Amino acid sequence: MTPVLLLHGIGGSSASFEPQVDVLSKRHRVVAWDAPGYGDSPDPERADIGWYAEQAARIFDEPAHVVGVSWGGVIATRLALEHPVRSLTLADSTRGSGTSPEAAARMRVRVDELAEVGAAEFARRRAPRLSSDPATRAKVEATMARVRLAGYRAAAESMATTNHGPLLGRISVPTLVVVGADDQVTGVAESRLLAREIPGARLRVIGGGHAANQECPDEFNEVLLEFLSEVEAARCA
Question: What is the DSSP letter of 64?
């Protein structure tokens, strides 16, 4: 069974992939990580995307299919640029927040807000932007309410100092870009840009918002499994 690595967003954890793990595990060896500073993982040693990609690359002893949501997609992009992977899936993701000083500042100010109001209130404020579905929003909020300041601060800084835009043309593995049609965080336009700039990438717009993998899991899983099956079939041809 081929490996699949699931990388969560900046306000998430391995729990964010609960709708995917069992489905994918029927065909693949699946790891949904808790990034450094999240879940039970120790606090991060550094705050740059390259370092996070190095940690992710150590999880399997062979190239994996890498699926990244939001910040996890930015890590996944660097992983595909600097380490062997079987395929790349970017879900509701972005080039990074270093595309402009304003975008970087918006990312960094989140850390100040988290430090000021605490994780529970921070999650309550941000969750509605990630999903308009009440059940999904409640799950997102519960997960985000457990974020740790050290982990979030390093993740935010890694985003604020990253702009993969000039590097996207170097990605040479099969790539799927998935985005919720109602994503109000990174947005459909950003996903279209990723798909346009990555050679051979395909774009799929599905239902849901920024947390589309949780809000519309059946559609997300179907699109992802179809893509992974095609990649595996091509490798064996």
Answer: -
**What confidence score (pLDDT) does residue 235 get?**
76
Q: Global pTM? A: 0.97
Q: Which residues are 176's β-sheet partners?
A: 89, 202
Residue 25 has pLDDT above 80, yes or no: yes
**CA gap 37, 155 in Å, rounded:** 9
| DSSP calls for 80-100 | HHHS--SEEEEES--S-STTS
Q: How far is CA 22 from CA 6, 17, 19, 92, 137, in A?
A: 12, 9, 7, 21, 21
Confidence of residue 237 (pLDDT cuts 50, 70, 90): low
- Please name the residue that has the structure tokens 């099969």: 174
Cβ contact 1:27 at 8 Å = yes
Q: What are phi and psi of 189, to 5 degrees?
A: -60, -40
- The pLDDT value recorded for residue 210 is 97
Mention every residue, 6+ apart, whose C-beta is less than 8 A from residue 143: 11, 12, 13, 15, 16, 123
Residue 81: what residue type?
Answer: L
Instruction: Kindly give the interhelix angle for 119-130 and 101-117, rounded to the nearest 10 degrees.
Output: 130
CA distance linking residue 72 with residue 139, whole number of Å: 18
Rounded Cα–Cα distance for residues 89 and 173 (Å): 10
